[in-house]
Amino acid sequence: MTTAPGQVSVASQGLRHPLDPDPARATKARAVFALGLLGMLTGLFIGGVVPATVALQLARQARREAYASGGFLTGGVWLRRGERLAWTGLVLVAVSVVVAVVIGVVRLAGTPFGHDYPANMD
């Protein structure tokens, strides 16, 4: 397979240079997945916003580092899964906040407004 005219095909490039580092899994990828999972599991309790936000920030950093490494940092699948879980956690937080506001407004609307005077007073 060639990528552009005049380039050497990927299959015939040969062995890699001995000074190239071995591909390694990015440690931040595992952290992103764990924080995204924690954010999703605690998303309904509003506390999931913190780990989900941290997971998304770490995912940005990990993607930058993986791009700068030239393909020697792996773990892109863990990053994508962690990001999806973090976004799911943030959606659950938003749903919880909306439900809490709606319940609060409905309860506030049901309570009497103003002073409740006795029947014999004008």
From TrEMBL:
<keyword id="KW-1133">Transmembrane helix</keyword>
<keyword id="KW-0472">Membrane</keyword>
<protein>
    <recommendedName>
        <fullName>DUF4190 domain-containing protein</fullName>
    </recommendedName>
</protein>
<feature type="region of interest" description="Disordered">
    <location>
        <begin position="1"/>
        <end position="22"/>
    </location>
</feature>
<feature type="transmembrane region" description="Helical">
    <location>
        <begin position="85"/>
        <end position="109"/>
    </location>
</feature>
<keyword id="KW-0812">Transmembrane</keyword>
<feature type="transmembrane region" description="Helical">
    <location>
        <begin position="31"/>
        <end position="56"/>
    </location>
</feature>
<feature type="compositionally biased region" description="Polar residues">
    <location>
        <begin position="1"/>
        <end position="12"/>
    </location>
</feature>
